[in-house]
Amino acid sequence: MSADEAALAAAEAAYVESRGVVGGEADGDDRAVEAALRPTSLAEVIGQERVREQLSLVLEAARARERAPDHVLLSGPPGLGKTTLAMIIAAEMSTPLRLTSGPAITHAGDLAAILSGMNDGDVLFVDEIHRMSRPAEEMLYMAMEDFRVDVVIGKGPGATAIPLEIPPFTLVGATTRAGLLPGPLRDRFGFTAHLEFYEVGELDQIVRRSAGLLGVDLTDEGAAEIASRSRGTPRIANRLLRRVRDFAQVRADGVVTLGVAHQALDLYEVDESGLDRLDRAVLDVLCRRFAGGPVGVSTLAVAVGEERETVEEVAEPFLVRCGFLARTPRGRVATPAAWQHLGLTAPANAPFGSPPAVSAGEPGLFDTDE
Ligand SMILES: Nc1ncnc2c1ncn2[C@@H]1O[C@H](COP(=O)(O)OP(=O)(O)O)[C@@H](O)[C@H]1O
Ligand SMILES: [Mg+2]
To answer: Which amino acids does the record list as binding DNA (predicted)?
Structure first.
């Protein structure tokens, strides 16, 4: 692990909650292996075509002008490649990357200390940027726009603000919910990339690439099986690959075949659609306890014993993407596919699609329980 990666591991540890073998967040085991599996250039990144092309234009233009690129905001569910892209931005610009995270910046002074230590053209990566404290956020607006901050010395009537110049830098922010960022902060990013869940074909390439790097022997069908159950998420694909490899070593001859992958994934409770325990719990509660909805996301979170944030940022986007859950002005509803997936028969009065569904990418626009 490099110093950068060690710092990142520490920053991530501030937030990570372990959810077993599935779940998009990184655990300690992931972080160690991820360092080895991360693509290190844009050309190596699999999928995310549009983001990759847009980003490569932004970086190429900046290089031609010999200026730090515009600030970049990366948003999307955990495990889709935000940290990877931040590292790639710095690598492609051949500049050092400084890492921190929103929860680590509790005072404006913490941010001032980081900013004043930056050099011309450095990339500052702020993970979980939506969790930064308000005063730090306000300091960041000014730093992003004017490359200057006011450091306040003293308290009360005697306090003075000392302006401090900062060399031009590029801020890369990552967030699981762009909608939670205050408008003024969002507006100061010159480029915003929203990362989407990956297609099975892309995950298949990722699994093969990782297997190559880790020296795992796997068949085409084995790779395809892992890819199709990875919940559209590269981090989960890499994690499942490691768990399936364990299974292949202990219970078979070490080769990851379709049969081995199948048995291992059943053992780890990942279903054919890639739904994990939390995803299934949410659907189950929605259908069995709330008759398919509509029900508010906070109520759902309480019912499954999870934080509202986790349900909204981790489970819900994937359920919407699979077509199992819809967000409506009156709350979340289960779709016919959800009832079918659980092997249940929907009641005659199930609320399918009556009110128009809104996209999962939007912040809790119509939450009934906010
Ligand atoms: N496009 C990609 N191609 C190949 N591997 C990827 C890609 N995106 C992510 N990964 C893998 O998934 C892991 C998690 O990615 P990461 O950037 O840490 O996600 P995030 O910061 O969004 O939670 C990385 O270790 C990397 O190996
Ligand atoms: Mg990350």
So the answer is: 308, 327, 332
**DSSP codes, 80-122:** SSHHHHHHHHHHHTT--EEEEEGGG--SHHHHHHHHHT--TT-
* Cis amide linkage into residue 329, ω under 30° from 0: no
Name the closest ligand to CA 84.
Answer: 1
Which of 20, 21, 24, 93 shows the shortest CA–CA distance to 319? 24
**pLDDT tier, 24 (very low <50, low <70, confident <90, very high otherwise):** low
**H helices of 229-349, where?**
234-251, 258-267, 277-284, 297-304, 308-310, 316-321, 336-341
Ligand-binding annotation for 148, yes or no, is: no
CA-closest candidate to residue 42, choices 94, 95, 89, 98 = 89
Provide, rounded to the nearest whole percent, the portion of the chain with pLDDT above 90.
Answer: 65
CA of 95 to the centre of ligand 1 (A): 21
Which spans in 117-218 are helix H? 134-146, 183-187, 200-214
Mutation probe of ligand 1 site: the residue of 55, 235, 236 with most atoms within 8 A of C-beta:
235
Give the residue, 258 or 356, on which the prediction is more confident: 258
**Structure-token pair, residue 16:** 């990570």
Catalytic: 155?
A: no
